[in-house]
Design brief:
Blueprint: E1 26-27, H1 32-44, H2 55-63, H3 75-81, H4 83-92, E2 100-101, H5 102-125, E3 133-142, H6 153-157, H7 168-172, E4 180-184, E5 204-208, H8 232-241, E6 248-249, E7 258-266, E8 270-278, E9 280-282, E10 291-295, E11 298-305, E12 311-317, E13 326-331, E14 338-343, E15 347-352, E16 357-358, E17 360-361, E18 364-365, H9 381-384, E19 389-390, H10 393-404, H11 407-412, H12 418-430, E20 436-440, E21 446-451, H13 452-455, H14 458-465, H15 472-488
Antiparallel strand pairs: 1-2, 3-4, 3-15, 3-16, 5-7, 6-9, 7-8, 7-19, 8-11, 9-10, 10-13, 11-12, 12-15, 13-14, 17-18, 20-21
Helix pairs in contact: 1-4, 2-4, 3-4, 5-8, 14-15
Length: 492
């Protein structure tokens, strides 16, 4: 039993607060019943109660003992709700006022509504049957280069005593969530095109369709867990990405969204499919505000039998041929104000160790055993395979881009307005992900351009910050415009 004599009783939390719309904007914490209900529900989903030995230290955190706090916790409430219930409430009461506003309650609502169905979906679709063929997928991972970030995080966030470091989840993410995992070959059927549809090289289709709303993001930035995984394709992509980090979102908040695949080659037995995935990861947990980690893209390919019974090859990775390949956004307060930055992820990749093998090999059940290159009989199918029809990888990549960004095809093939199409081709020729700033003449002649990643290059921004009181990024943009005007003078 833990006694908390240093915590005085103060229950006057104030009255209800009403927002500008005339609706209650806070959930009043007067009675313990709803707190207990939330605590019980979340603890049932797997949140650990911890050890009794550290209970006093955890209570000091929960009650703010030794630091300023706006309210005190009644000792009777501690006995009724328990240490974890109080800590759970304290974690989500970000501004420490004794209330949960609707914004503070929102992440809890997502947890209560989604976490149970998500776990059930993953468990249901991770089963490997005895008659299946098995592959081992290995993870190759190097954490984000903190030196690639443009912000001076130490001066920004550690200067205020007691402030929570919003980068905590990123800084702790040093290793993958799983070094390897076994899958049934049949799990990869989600990468195949819809049944009964004609196969041909260059055929593109969605694995996960985008759901971007017309206005604003499709899901809130103020959440810690993804929506329910109610489709098998979502579950498969989630299971793969969860090998990097346990909280992937299989579709992001903003476009481009979803996962798209394209047939590169096929024969009577196998299909070679290239794919591109746009997804995000949530790196933080309460009491830290949400932190969104968004790779530019995942790309890869899978070679699978047309009946999905055998898998010859599978790879998935974040391209690292650019200086910056990850976008990051994090909330800075309960009003959902955001900070952003970009950085470089050196290595984020999944690969199978070899082609699939029977789940029972030489009388041994290997469904939970790491399958390496020497497991089972040698398989030279991949090296000797001949395709009936195929297109180049470059053409397939282009088809994937057009599927994700239909405007590229529309602009290039507008036969009714060939002048506009020609201008579009000139602009698309210099485009690089994610955003380009372009300056051109009315006839489409490109005068000057720059990629957003280059504009936010850390060395350039940091050098300017030493010589100006202005926002360095604004100075960079201003210089870009001046350079463009200078380069455009010869055309005038």
């Amino acid at each position: 039993m833990v006694t908390v004599h240093s915590v005085s009783v103060q229950t006057d939390f104030g009255g209800d607060d009403v927002d500008g719309l005339g609706q209650p904007s806070r959930v009043f914490a007067r009675r313990l019943s709803w707190i207990l209900a939330i605590a019980t529900a979340l603890l049932a989903t797997g949140i650990s109660t911890g050890a009794v030995s550290d209970a006093v230290g955890r209570l000091r955190y929960a009650f703010g003992i030794g630091s300023s706090t706006q309210y005190r916790i009644p000792s009777q409430l501690v006995e009724d709700v328990g240490i974890d219930g109080v800590i759970l409430f304290k974690q989500h009461d970000i501004n420490d006022d004794g209330f949960l506003s609707l914004r503070e309650f929102e992440p809890i609502a997502h947890q209560l509504l989604d976490i149970k169905s998500q776990k059930q979906a993953v468990d249901r679709n991770s089963t490997i049957e005895q008659l299946d063929e098995v592959v081992t997928v290995e993870t190759f991972f190097k954490p984000l280069l903190m030196s690639s970030l443009t912000k001076d995080l130490n001066s920004d966030y550690t200067a205020v005593p007691g402030s929570l470091d919003p980068m905590m989840g990123l800084k702790k993410w040093k290793t993958p969530a799983a070094e390897w995992k076994n899958f049934a070959a049949g799990h990869f059927r989600q990468f195949l095109p819809p049944q009964n549809e004609e196969l041909f090289p260059g055929k593109c289709y969605y694995i996960i369709e985008p759901i971007v709303m017309e206005k604003g993001p499709s899901i809130s930035s103020n959440r810690y867990l993804p929506p329910s995984l109610n489709r098998d394709s979502w579950v498969m992509v989630h299971s793969l990405l969860a090998m990097f980090h346990p909280v992937p979102f299989v579709y992001g908040r903003f476009a481009p969204q979803g996962s798209v695949a394209c047939i590169r080659a096929f024969n009577s037995d196998y299909v070679d499919i290239m794919f591109r995935i746009h997804a995000e990861f949530q790196l933080n947990e309460p009491p830290y505000y949400p932190f969104w980690f968004t790779p530019g893209q995942f790309t890869g390919h899978v070679i699978i039998s047309r009946n999905s019974g055998r898998l010859l090859d599978f790879t998935l990775h974040v391209p690292n041929d650019k200086r910056l390949n990850v976008d990051m956004e994090w909330l800075t307060d309960s009003e959902e104000n955001m900070e952003v930055d970009i950085g470089f992820m050196p290595l984020m990749e999944l690969r199978v160790t070899r082609s699939s093998v029977p789940a029972e090999l030489d009388g041994v059940d290997i469904r939970s055993v790491h399958v390496n290159a020497s497991s089972g009989k040698p398989d030279d199918t991949l090296s000797t395979i001949e395709w009936t029809e195929e297109v180049s990888e470059e053409e397939t990549v282009r088809s994937l881009e057009v599927k994700l960004f239909p405007f590229k095809k529309a602009l290039q093939e507008d036969e009714d307005q060939p002048g506009f199409a020609a201008i579009a081709r000139q602009q698309l020729a210099v485009y690089r992900f994610p955003v380009m700033v372009m300056m051109s003449l009315p006839n489409g002649t490109m005068v000057h351009s720059a990629n957003a990643n280059d504009l936010l290059d850390k060395e350039q921004v940091m050098a300017l910050s030493k010589h100006t009181y202005e926002d360095p990024s604004e100075v960079v943009y201003h210089n870009l415009l001046k350079e463009g005007l200078a380069k455009g003078q010869p055309y005038l």
